């Protein structure tokens, strides 16, 4: 009988994303009260804030709601377009400030930073070239370092940058270039296992190669057959999600057991937040998946 590894440094949680929530307000999404009730019922104790404005933004109200359900907040999330240069700094900082302020008030220590999309995830319109120029890479890396510094100084939070499909930080090549061009004291990574696999990357290899830069994990899997079709036909991320490209563990790739084992070996406390993209979805679909996923992760030792 094989012994289940003890993943005592991995703190498992879930996020509004796993309930089909992509926007602050959308009639196709479950109400926030139902999300909080069900994420607690599924056996998770940690959550992310999700899109700013989905959960209550008054810290006292939100604290009361999460405390009542035995939940705690691990991170907030912001979207940025820092490759566009200093001109976007003020508008970026205004958005970051709102989210960071609530994140800090909830006792969390991380701010997940997602780069802007080069392709519209609803309409498939090409918004920008998928490859950055050298000048844009410099804007992106210097901008993220500045963001890391100022978020730390102002709010006491660490930023973790999230490689994401249809953004400029996606493939292994882009992720490594980004890490090699940024200061580890200011910027680290939120490794999303599903997005990285979607873009052809190997999560275990990344953890083993750049372990000191892994500051946070998102756990998800992709369906390899759907992914092959998505790649073959150039399908944007939003429609790919509607096709079910992000699937319920353990039916997809990458296998999460070796990812979690590699993360445990880093010897640091790490959040591992389940994020199964499925926008839009039927309101009764998320809870059974969340419960099965929590059971699966327990079987992995998390």
TrEMBL record:
Residues 36-299 form the Xylose isomerase-like TIM barrel domain. It holds the Pfam family AP_endonuc_2. It comes from the Bacteria. This is Xylose isomerase-like TIM barrel domain-containing protein.
